[in-house]
């Protein structure tokens, strides 16, 4: 082998070793972040469960997450909810987001490792900013509905049936072209057939776009959390599994439809149970 060939082989080997080390470091950091957010979510949910729930007409109970306790202000309640929401979203979405972030790093091309890390952080910031805005809207709607239900017992009695309708609608959404389009956008590799520029603005924009498609794709599944229990760990685990599987399974659209069938069946069971309680 010529000297040039030997040098090229050594350089290729060095880059391969460096790439493997970078990949291990990247996914190691995200694993620690996931562990921390999952732990914080479990602790937060336990604290919320310790506060109990308020029994309501119609045989259901309202989560204290939507209510202002003695001595609290509404900005304080909102800040507490959004803090918990943000931690919960990191734990739920990071499993499906991590490979996408890695592909973004590959699409950016050659740049310094430190700069690449900050660009990746900006993608994550943009992504979770969209989910935070989703949480702001959800809290506002939840707080208003809770206040109205507290004042109107007749409305509170129909909440179980309305919740069943939300679950059925979420299941039906799994079969729509709208869902399929956003799922395709989420599954599409960033920078396919081209290299993304190593720009902070482009990184943030990429994260925002990804967050928008992901929040739309997961809208139905997320809505189920709110009607079943936004701090219910079992519901979180099931929704997280569904989000991740349909994102990475070879035939994501088929998996989404299978999930839709399961959701519709659950909605029908909730309707039957609600009718028996009534």
Description:
- The structure is a single chain.
- The chain is mainly α and 278 residues long.
- It has one domain (3-277).
- Helix content is 80%, strand content 3%.
- The protein is built from ten helices and two strands, in the order αββααααααααα.
- The protein has helices at residues 3-50, 74-108, 113-151, 153-157, 159-173, 177-187, 200-217, 219-228, 233-248, 252-277, and strands spanning 53-56, 60-63.
- Strands 1-2 form a two-stranded antiparallel ribbon.
- A hairpin with a 3-residue loop joins strand 1 (53-56) and strand 2 (60-63).
- Helix 5 runs antiparallel to helix 10, helix 8 runs antiparallel to helix 9 and helix 9 (233-248) packs antiparallel against helix 10 (252-277).
- The longest helix is centred in the N-terminal third of the chain and has 48 residues, at 3-50.
- It is globular and about 60 Å long.
SS content category: mainly alpha
Overall morphology: globular
Please outline the major beta sheet. Answer: 2 strands, antiparallel
Rg estimate, integer Å = 22 Å
Number of domains: 1
Unreliably modeled segments: 6-17
Mean pLDDT metric? 85
Order of helices and strands: HEEHHHHHHHHH
Residue share in helix:
over 70%
Give the strand tally: 2
Order of strands across the main sheet: 1-2
End-to-end Cα distance: 84 Å
Number of helices: 10
Strand content: under 5%
Protein name: Metal-binding protein
InterPro entries: PpoB2-like
Keywords: Membrane, Transmembrane, Transmembrane helix
Organism: Paraburkholderia lacunae
């Amino acid at each position: 082998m010529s000297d040039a060939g030997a040098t090229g082989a050594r350089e290729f080997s060095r880059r391969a070793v460096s790439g493997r080390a970078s990949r291990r470091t990247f996914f190691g950091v995200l694993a620690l972040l996931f562990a921390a957010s999952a732990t914080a979510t479990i602790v937060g949910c336990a604290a919320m469960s310790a506060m109990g729930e308020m029994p309501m007409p119609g045989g259901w109970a309202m989560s204290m997450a939507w209510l202002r306790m003695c001595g609290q202000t509404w900005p304080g309640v909102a800040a507490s909810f959004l803090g918990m929401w943000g931690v919960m979203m990191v734990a739920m979405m990071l499993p499906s987001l991590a490979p996408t972030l890695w592909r973004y790093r590959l699409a950016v091309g050659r740049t310094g490792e430190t700069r690449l890390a900050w660009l990746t952080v900006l993608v994550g910031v943009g992504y979770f900013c969209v989910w935070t805005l989703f949480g702001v809207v959800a809290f506002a709607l939840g707080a208003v509905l809770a206040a109205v239900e507290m004042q109107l017992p007749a409305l509170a009695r129909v909440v179980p049936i309305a919740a069943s309708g939300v679950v059925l609608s979420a299941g039906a959404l799994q079969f729509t072209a709208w869902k399929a389009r956003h799922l395709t956008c989420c599954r599409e590799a960033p920078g396919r057939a081209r290299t993304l520029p190593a720009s902070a603005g482009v990184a943030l924009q990429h994260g925002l776009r990804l967050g928008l498609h992901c929040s739309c794709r997961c809208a139905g599944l997320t809505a189920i959390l709110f009607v079943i229990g936004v701090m219910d760990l079992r519901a979180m685990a099931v929704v997280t599994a569904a989000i991740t599987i349909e994102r990475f399974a070879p035939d994501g659209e088929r998996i989404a439809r299978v999930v839709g069938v399961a959701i519709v069946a659950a909605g029908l069971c909730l309707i039957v149970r609600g009718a028996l309680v009534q």
